[in-house]
């Protein structure tokens, strides 16, 4: 009876997955293609490794919230072993797996031996592992430049175009399936999850079994970190952020119980692919990427609540080869979420079709007219972080240009600085076969590989605001030269301080390539023109106003001689200004790169003296204009200027399109600008 009900539950889960595939396939071009299927598998591997590791943990009645943070610690450890210690890649991988085993052993000792609740232990180790990763790199250093043979593991293809990391994933799936469903250890884990005390009285080695699954969880997280580094081309402390919650979601969607005693490897795999297909389908439909998070969160909450409400005391030990059914209520919640997401996709596509001019074709580019001037182009544009006011204002200009040109604009990107998310979105745009991609690059080493792939598929690639590696794009829309920005900032600082004094810089991320190029110019200008000005410290804000506020407070306390804060990220200027204002430091001046609208209050209060920036709305406008011209062949090698709509003639220098000189805004003129 149990076997029959189990099969029925998994059939229902497979039916949910089939509904997703059919609905997205019917409403989203290119979804039902082999290339897109390969990318769904590639997207699922790192998260899948973590979800597989969590399945026996949850079956045994435990939880491991530290797996995402362990990925971050393992990633930077791998970077250190290879880059700093000069270990060969295979040896660096083995030592990295040992780091994961050590982290898992720490959890195991506290949970299995000391009896501390798993939630508390892994919550603490999550903070510990992430803190160690950030401490080792100062939350800024990222390791890249890995050999191509290693990058093949995350970016290469095998026979039939399958991703190179698939054999590793398949081996781990088989290993965990044998452990959980075909071994005495697996039978013990089910028993422990149902009633740990009864398992002890029955003579089962509970502590040993629990210790095993937590050590394996650490090893699996480290394996995922190595593949993540090969996939993105970088090893950073923020690797794996949020993976723990996504993995738990996959396990619970697959039929596991938060109370323990129930769950299967194949159920987890189905839950994993339900999530992967949902996210991929929404991305191909050009819907906001955060919608996948909303739907996934709704599903997870619904499943957990229903599971708790319907739970009944169980006194029967579940054998490893027996599997408990997925509850019908869980399937109902899943179906509702899938249908909701698909209806949103379908409704959006219908609206787009109806909004197009009569006769406009909306099929895949390969099926449309080859003359791009005869059809509606699709331009995909990505900011570094969608919520940053800088990029919000750039979007206005981008949408203005899209309306003028009669093209479809896809605007999407991560909600925070997330290079891996940028890679995933570009992959989905390649599958969608957009005409041009324009990216504000967070990490050049990470994204350049996938941008080269886009160029190889005939898609025009542009970067804006921050550049990729030169061979990874066709053109860079340069808001201003590094010399123009750095020299203007330095000269204004010298004017405000009378040519003498200490100042500090609050930047975005310490690894941001464009900001580092500005800092290099600033240092050079100081040495050549302003030797009595001294830059005492550079602090990161991560494009977060509150962090800029906190960092400025720290600078003011630690460096009492600082008389000027130069913030070179849009949210950082008002954040620094608020810190100076609250500290009552009228002797400290604030200036930097930012938007006029979010600084007018501080400028009129004489807290901020100078705001330097280009017109960000015009930057977005110019990017879409240039991307459209590139897609239509009007922007090509040898062109020295272009006519960019209301902006008029814009200079083109080689592979760079120049917006112009930066603006200097003070109390006298800042009200003239509205962006």
The number of distinct β-strands equals 14
- Give the % helix: 55-70%
Structural class: alpha/beta
**Which range does the strand content fall in?**
5-15%
**Backbone CA Rg:** 27 Å
The DSSP helix count reads 23
Distance between the termini: 66 Å
The profile of the biggest β sheet is:
8 strands, mixed
Provide the spatial order of strands within the biggest beta sheet: 2-1-3-4-5-13-12-11
| Average pLDDT over all residues | 84
**Low-confidence runs:** 1-6, 314-329, 345-370
- The coarse silhouette is globular
Structure description:
The protein has 675 residues and is of the alpha/beta class. It has 23 helices and 14 strands. The strands form 2 sheets. Strands 2-1-3-4-5-13-12-11 form an 8-stranded mixed β-sheet, sandwiched between helices. Helix 4 (89-113) runs antiparallel to helix 10. It is globular and about 80 Å long. The relative contact order is 0.09. Residues 1-6, 314-329 and 345-370 have low confidence and may be disordered.
Name some characteristics of this structure.
six-stranded mixed sheet; eight-stranded mixed sheet; disordered N terminus; 675 residues; single chain; alpha/beta
């Amino acid at each position: 009876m149990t076997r029959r009900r189990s099969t029925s539950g998994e059939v229902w889960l497979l039916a949910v997955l089939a509904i997703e595939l059919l609905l997205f396939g019917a409403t989203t071009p290119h979804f039902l293609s082999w290339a897109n299927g390969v990318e769904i598998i590639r997207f699922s591997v790192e998260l899948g490794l973590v979800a597989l590791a969590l399945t026996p943990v949850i079956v045994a009645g435990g939880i491991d919230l530290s797996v995402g943070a362990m990925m971050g610690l393992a990633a930077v450890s791998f970077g250190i072993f290879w880059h700093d210690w000069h270990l060969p890649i295979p040896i660096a991988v083995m030592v990295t797996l040992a780091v994961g085993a050590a982290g898992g052993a720490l959890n195991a000792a506290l949970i299995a031996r000391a009896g501390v609740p798993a939630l508390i232990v892994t919550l603490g180790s999550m903070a510990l592992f992430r803190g160690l990763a950030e401490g080792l790199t100062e939350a800024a250093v990222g390791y890249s430049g890995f050999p191509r043979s290693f990058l093949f593991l995350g970016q290469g293809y095998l026979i039939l175009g399958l991703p190179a990391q698939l054999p590793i994933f398949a081996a781990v799936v088989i290993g965990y399936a044998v452990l959980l469903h075909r071994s005495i250890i697996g039978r013990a884990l089910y028993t422990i999850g149902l009633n740990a005390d009864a398992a002890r009285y029955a003579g089962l080695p509970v502590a040993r079994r629990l210790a095993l699954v937590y050590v394996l969880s650490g090893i699996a997280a480290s394996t995922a970190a190595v593949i993540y580094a090969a996939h993105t081309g970088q090893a950073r402390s923020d690797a794996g952020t949020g993976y723990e919650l996504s993995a738990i979601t996959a396990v619970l969607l697959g039929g596991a119980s938060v109370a323990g005693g129930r769950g299967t490897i194949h159920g987890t795999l189905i839950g994993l692919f339900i999530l992967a297909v949902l996210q991929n389908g929404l991305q191909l439909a050009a819907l906001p990427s955060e919608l996948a998070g909303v739907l996934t969160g709704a599903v997870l909450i619904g499943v957990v609540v229903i599971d708790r409400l319907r739970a009944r005391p169980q006194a029967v030990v579940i054998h490893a080869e027996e599997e408990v059914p997925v509850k019908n209520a869980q399937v109902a919640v899943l179906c509702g979420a899938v249908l909701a997401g698909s209806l949103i996709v379908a409704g959006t596509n219908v609206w787009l079709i109806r909004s197009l001019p009569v006769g406009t074709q909306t099929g895949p580019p390969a099926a449309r007219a080859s003359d791009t001037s005869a059809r509606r182009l699709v331009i995909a544009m990505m900011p570094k972080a969608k919520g940053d006011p800088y990029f919000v204002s750039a979007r206005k200009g981008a949408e203005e240009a899209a309306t003028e040109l009669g093209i479809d604009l896809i605007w999407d990107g991560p909600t925070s600085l997330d290079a891996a998310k940028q890679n995933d979105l570009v992959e989905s745009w390649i599958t969608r076969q957009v005409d041009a991609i324009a990216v504000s690059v967070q990490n050049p080493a990470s994204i350049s590989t996938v941008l080269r792939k886009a160029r190889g598929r005939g898609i025009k690639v542009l970067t804006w605001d921050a550049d990729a590696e030169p061979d990874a794009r066709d053109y860079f829309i340069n808001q201003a030269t590094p010399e123009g920005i750095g020299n203007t900032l330095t000269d204004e600082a010298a004017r405000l301080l009378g040519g003498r004094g200490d100042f500090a810089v609050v930047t975005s991320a310490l690894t941001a390539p464009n900001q580092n190029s500005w800092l290099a110019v600033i240092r050079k200008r100081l040495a050549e023109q302003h030797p009595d000005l001294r830059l005492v410290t550079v602090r990161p804000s991560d494009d977060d106003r509150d962090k800029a506020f906190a960092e400025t407070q720290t600078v003011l306390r630690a460096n009492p001689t600082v008389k000027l804060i130069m913030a070179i990220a849009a949210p950082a200027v008002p954040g620094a200004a608020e810190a100076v204002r609250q500290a009552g430091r009228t002797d400290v001046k604030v200036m930097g790169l930012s938007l006029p609208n979010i600084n007018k209050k501080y400028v009129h209060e004489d807290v901020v003296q100078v705001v330097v920036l280009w017109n960000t709305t015009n930057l977005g406008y110019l990017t879409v204009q240039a991307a459209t011209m590139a897609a239509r062949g009007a922007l090509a090698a040898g062109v020295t200027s272009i006519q960019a709509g209301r902006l008029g003639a814009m200079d083109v220098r080689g592979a760079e399109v120049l917006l112009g000189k930066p603006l200097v805004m003070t109390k006298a003129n800042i009200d003239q600008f509205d962006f």
